[in-house]
Amino acid sequence: MxxxxxxxxxxxxxxxxxxxSSQIPRTKEKMNNxxxxxxxxxxxxxxKIVAVGTTDEVLKQLSGEYEIIxxxxxxxxxxxxxxxxxxxxxxxxxxxxxxxxxxxxxxLEIKEQGGGMxxxxxxxxxxxxxxxxxxxxxxxxxxxxxxxxxxxxxxxYEMSFEGEIKQLEIIKKLNEDHPLxxxxxxxxxxxxxxxxxxxxxxxxxxxxKWIPEISKRNLAEYADVFCEKGYYTLDQTRxxxxxxxxHGMKLRNHCDWLAHSGGTRLSVxxxxxxxxxxxxxxxxxxxxxxxGQDTVVVLLPTSPFCYVGTYAKAREIxxxxxxxxxxxxxxxxxxxxxxxxxxxxxxxxxxxTAAEALVAAxxxxxxxxxxxxxxGSLEVGKDADIVIFDAxxxxxxxxxxxxxxxxxxxxxxxxxxxxxxxxx
Length: 424
Ligand SMILES: [Zn+2]
Fold this sequence. Notes:
TIM Barrel, 9-stranded mixed β-sheet, binds zinc ion
């Protein structure tokens, strides 16, 4: 039966479809299978993909009038998915990043000197709702212009009851107003100075008051904890995550980033977290213990690139058979909105292949936020989140790096970026 379409993208040098993994993420050697169609085409109607194939195959199926977009010599991929973003903060910390990168002063030393997280907690709390929306929208614009169409968005930069509700309300508003889709997470991140010597009291408050209210207002799909040296202990992390699960939230965990915290082991004990993130210092046997859990490992190359120095052992984790995603880890500590750059670092610094990096930035990232039924691949019935890159193939992100290759971005079939600029 002939198909109607609003538009069709044709003649793509590489059409990266990544089909067949909407149910289970890609693992091991399957991460090298991008299901590329040469001279590929994808047709879209009412925001959904209606046909995928070679240009000849797709055009034969179409009838009526439709717009034709020529992607000759270009790469077409699913919209990129960024599954780990500390989105809502005010004030930047470029001076501190320089100290960490150049002088080797550690992240925790900066915090002890009154900077770092505590500085961000104060600056963010002092920023109005309206101003914060404007600041945060700029980050989302840059993400969109770099080909990202869906992100996970964490709160955690106020760590007071009213402040965290405000952060999550900002995420909700941006999800409504901005073309990007945002998946909201309550993150127990900083520990405000007044709780520094009594963090159990803060955890009690989070468990007894914050989580029930966040859940009642339906403000967070996920809960996450900074289970890190100098932040939340294993017992505190367990209390927060279990309370969140009791209130219907899905779980993530931020662990083994600055040091081996045991957070990965705890995630296995709690069971079936949707993602565990960082895993830089996780011993092999604790990584292996994640097997059989319904969990995606999210790797974050920016803090190793900027100041931590040591990267997660991506090869070892992939060879274990665990699904791996990558993300920007956008935060007040260091800021890069580009998933293209994450693919560069994944290849050049984490020894992932270009294909593994792209799978990690699309379908596996979609699994890590429970959206793989709708996004992350170019398949009939999925949302038409599509990026056209002015690059000949998927290996170009590691080769021609540090620049933006995006030509066009479609979000649910609507052209939102053209010539690399946001137009809607
Ligand atoms: Zn993070």
